[in-house]
TrEMBL record:
Organism: Sphingobium xenophagum
UniProt domain ABC transporter: residue ranges: 4-229
Subcellular location, record wording: Cell membrane
Residue window of the full protein shown: 354 to 582 of 616
Protein name: ATP-binding cassette subfamily B protein
Amino acid sequence: GGAVRFDHVRFGYDPEREILHDVSFEVPAGHTLAIVGPSGAGKSTIARILFRFYDIQSGQVTIDGQDIAEVTQASLRAAIGIVPQDMVLFNDTVGYNIGYGREGASQDEIEAAAKAASIHDFILSLPKGYDTRVGERGLKLSGGEKQRVAIARTLLKDPPLLVLDEATSALDSRTETEIQTVLRDISRKRTTLVVAHRLSTVVDAEEIIVLDQGRIVERGRHADLVRAD
Ligand code: ADP
Ligand code: ADP
């Protein structure tokens, strides 16, 4: 499940200023589509439209053939897992952060998700009250560790559709490579929409679309686009 289709989508936050101009693409179930392009191109806007944070002005967006305009936001949230660039963690155990909002999950399921996200045992067993925030005042978990927690949290939800929104762009290059390996592994098993700045981070995608100022200016596989560079 989780197949996504954007069909001639036009959207502007302000109807007078169109941001997405006639955007069409399709992600078959189980495939990975990457959206790359410069800052301000409209990549995150596409992700927000998918959650129905905003309604489009014209065109249609479907998930598994169903028009999202006819679906509740709650069921969209259940169907889509997002790994954000920068997740804010609670000052509590890592297990708590993974399981937060997933009331039905057992400890075994949390541990399985942690394992799938390559979280080291010692991080999972950090005591309650350990400062897991990352920021100016409490750098306790590294950026990479925090991203593993965000990934485990998403895996626990087991959504048919995964959105990776610049999920590694806040990391240093070595950590980025490590986290990309984890992401590649989990995206192989489900429908995935990857939002990224650079082509080099989306080598594995079945299709890449290049967005510039709200228009798809190129599409193809990684090798095709690198050749055209
Ligand atoms: P990207 O993710 O590719 O960097 P965005 O989708 O964030 O691009 O932004 C696309 C355009 O929409 C930009 O011109 C940006 O200024 C504008 N934009 C983004 N969010 C809002 C908003 N909440 N209200 C108005 N304009 C916005
Ligand atoms: P669910 O609604 O099932 O928990 P998600 O895991 O996709 O689905 O949503 C994560 C929750 O975390 C949402 O309540 C959202 O508001 C919140 N969230 C999303 N992105 C961030 C972020 N970057 N930092 C902190 N919280 C976030």
